[in-house]
Amino acid sequence: MTLPTQVGAAKSALRGRLLTRRRERPVAERAAAAAAVTTTLLRGLAAARTIAAFVPDEIEPGHGRLPAAYTQLGVRVLLPVVPEAGHGLHWAVDSGRLAPGRFGLLEPVGPRLGTTALSAADVVVVPALAVGRDGSRLGRGGGYYDRALRHARPDAVLIALVFDDELVEDLPVEAHDRRVTAVITPSGGWQNLPARSPWPKLP
Predict the structure, then answer these.
(1) Which of 28, 100, 139, 169 counts the most CB atoms within 10 A of its CB?
(2) Which domains does the chain have, with CATH numbers?
(3) What totals of helices (H) and strands (E) does the chain contain, helices first?
(4) pTM for the full model?
């Protein structure tokens, strides 16, 4: 029987390896990946009305192209705002203007809509360090997205963006982990995933 502390330790160790690998990726590889995932994502979101997304940092797939590329869709785009305290993501409409927020992450300039604004999105694009083929997702460990996704509509598409080698057979998971329903990789494109986990109750 695997104890929760063992799962947490396994996830922490895996995060460290994945982050190191991302930092070591050549700039040309990152740029090619950004172009590929952006093209696939825009094609897949053509019918969306409201999208909740994120601003990729320099080592994440999509950096340099997202969220600006969403303007081609002509849809309402919500971007996350990390609050000064607590772990509940707030949201704001992307107006094209971004400014550094908590942890140095870029966030939209404009009125804050609160944590429940995510319920308006029919597609939620989430960051991930790795995704399992069962829909399991490994984030950076802050718990922001596991908490945020409890506000997502039950029929919302939850899609993660990762590099090719970050789509794996399985991942260590905990009871509160929220699974995604699709993943995009640079070479594999859009792949639907079979599992949908129940809504977890988080503090």
Answers:
(1) 139
(2) 4-192 (3.40.50.10420)
(3) 3, 12
(4) 0.89
Helix (H) or strand (E) holding 89: none
Q: Residue 178's pLDDT is what?
A: 85
Q: Can you give the pLDDT at residue 195? A: 54
**Half-sphere exposure of residue 71, counting CA atoms within 13 Å on the CB side?**
9
User: Please, what's the b/e burial string for 45-57 (b: 16 or more CB within 10 A of its CB; e: otherwise)?
Assistant: beebebbbbbbbe
Phi, psi of 77 (to 5 degrees): -120, 125
Spatial separation of the C-alpha atoms in residues 37 and 66, rounded to whole Å: 10
**Residue 166 — φ and ψ, nearest 5°?**
-100, 0
Burial class (CB in 10 A: 0-12, 13-18, 19+), 168: middle
| Residue 188 near residue 166 (C-beta atoms within 8 A) | no
What's the CA gap between 112 and 10, in Å, rounded?
A: 36
pLDDT given at position 198: 40
- CB 21, CB 30: distance < 8 Å: no
Q: What gap in Å lies between CA 61 and CA 197, rounded to an integer?
A: 25
Distance CA 126, CA 162 (A): 10
Extract the tokens encoding 42.
């825009």
Instruction: Name residues of the chain where pLDDT drops below 50.
Output: 1, 197-203
Whose CA is closest to 125, among 96, 166, 162?
162
Q: What is d(CA 105, CA 54) in angstroms, rounded to the nearest whole number?
A: 10
